[in-house]
């Protein structure tokens, strides 16, 4: 499903960009009721001014990479995704961040706290080992644990939306140890807010 939606995302961005180029503000939506894929493409950027946003997001990616985080660009280089193996943050079957995991996320907290600029989507994935409901509950608990850590570090509520996705979106084969390890992952998306895009003249 994620693969199919990735083909649709550019079309949604283009459609949103057409509206933005025509001077229309993005329709305000309840982001907490949206799917991960919907949140990645919302709010849309003006297609004619996308270079301004892309430059700012590439700078964010550079700064994250300097902190030794692995990143990929999404939504035509308008969204930055940080990729972290679940084993770096959690012990096996644990719902609580490990001491090493807390240290790892501390290096990311300063970026997450820029919530006027970025909406942060925390997506936690599992492999297919074990019961499906257990994996769904485990990844949801882990996503909430990451959300709680960032907000406790900031001392305030942040613009974070957690997703526990279980084994719905594998990136490797569960027939191999390497594939299962790849599937057990955390993705943290930095999505520019409408206010940030407006400040860049990209909305």
What would you call the structural class?
alpha+beta
Number of strands: 5
Number of helical regions = 7
CATH topology: 60s Ribosomal Protein L30, Chain: A
Mean pLDDT over the full residue set: 90
Amount of beta strand: 15-25%
Order of helices and strands: HHHEEHEHEHEH
Tertiary shape: globular
Q: What does the main sheet amount to?
A: 5 strands, mixed
Indicate how many domains the architecture comprises.
1
Low-confidence stretches: 1-22
CATH homologous superfamily identity: OmpA-like domain
Assembly form of the protein:
single chain
**Spatial order of the strands in the main sheet?**
1-2-5-3-4
**At CATH's second level, what is the architecture?**
2-Layer Sandwich
CATH class bucket: Alpha Beta
Helix content: 40-55%
Radius of gyration: 17 Å
Distance between the termini: 29 Å
List the helices and strands and how they pair.
Elements (H helix, E strand, L loop, with lengths): L1 H20 L14 H5 L9 H17 L3 E5 L4 E7 L13 H14 L5 E7 L7 H23 L5 E5 L12 H7 L1 E8 L1 H6 L4
Parallel strand pairs: 3-4
Antiparallel strand pairs: 1-2, 2-5, 3-5
Helix pairs in contact: 4-5
């Amino acid at each position: 499903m994620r693969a199919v939606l990735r083909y649709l995302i550019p079309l949604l961005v283009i459609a949103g960009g057409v509206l933005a180029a025509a001077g229309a503000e993005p329709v305000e939506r309840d982001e907490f009721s949206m799917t991960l894929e919907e949140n990645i493409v919302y709010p849309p950027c003006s297609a004619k001014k996308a270079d301004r946003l892309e430059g700012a997001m590439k700078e964010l990616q550079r700064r994250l990479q300097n902190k030794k985080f692995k990143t990929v660009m999404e939504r035509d280089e308008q969204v930055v995704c940080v990729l972290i193996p679940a084993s770096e943050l959690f012990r096996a079957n644990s719902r609580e961040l490990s001491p090493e995991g807390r240290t790892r996320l501390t290096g990311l907290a300063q970026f997450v706290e820029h919530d006027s600029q970025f909406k942060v989507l925390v997506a936690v994935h599992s492999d297919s080992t074990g019961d499906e409901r257990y994996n769904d509950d485990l990844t949801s608990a882990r996503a909430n644990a990451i959300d709680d850590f960032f907000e406790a570090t900031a001392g305030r509520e942040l613009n974070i939306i957690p997703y526990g996705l279980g084994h719905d979106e594998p990136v490797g084969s569960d027939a191999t140890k390497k594939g299962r390890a790849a599937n057990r992952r955390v993705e943290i998306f930095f999505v520019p807010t409408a206010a940030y895009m407006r400040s860049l003249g990209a909305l």
